[in-house]
Amino acid sequence: WYQRRVHGVHPNRNGTVSTRPTGAQNAYHDPDGPVQLVVGHAGAIQDELWVKPQPQWSATRYADASQGEIKRTYGYERLTAHNSTHMFGEFVPIEEGLTDVFWIVKSHG
Q: CA 36 from chain center: how many Å?
């Protein structure tokens, strides 16, 4: 069984968010934990329901059939390491335009 969905998770400790992105560029500056991404788009459409309300640690999520409509579920994640301190991520859905972008910035490489 494979569900088609995308989920981004803020760095957290025991479910408590420790770092959130800031600014217009949606940047995580020196996050004290991993920024997690789950990206899977090749599967069949299932009853893809998310826990509601969205938990605090949940940053981004696409694919929800709870209203009978599944949006923005085919696509890909593009990660670009610009140098040893800056990485850029962007989710690009096939059906619509760019929907989610973020930076991870570390003070030292």
A: 7
15, exposed or middle or buried, with CB in 10 Å at 0-12, 13-18, 19+?
exposed
Q: Say what the pTM is.
A: 0.73
Cis amide bond preceding 53, omega within 30: yes
Indicate whether 71 pLDDT > 60: no
The candidate with the shortest Cα–Cα distance to 7, out of 46, 55, 62, 47, is: 62
Nearest CA among 96, 89, 59, 54 for reference residue 74:
96
Evaluate the CA torsion angle 13, 16, 22, 26 in order and state its sign: positive
Sign of the CA dihedral with 14 first, then 19, 21, and 23 last: positive
- CA-to-CA distance for 6 and 95, rounded, in angstroms? 14
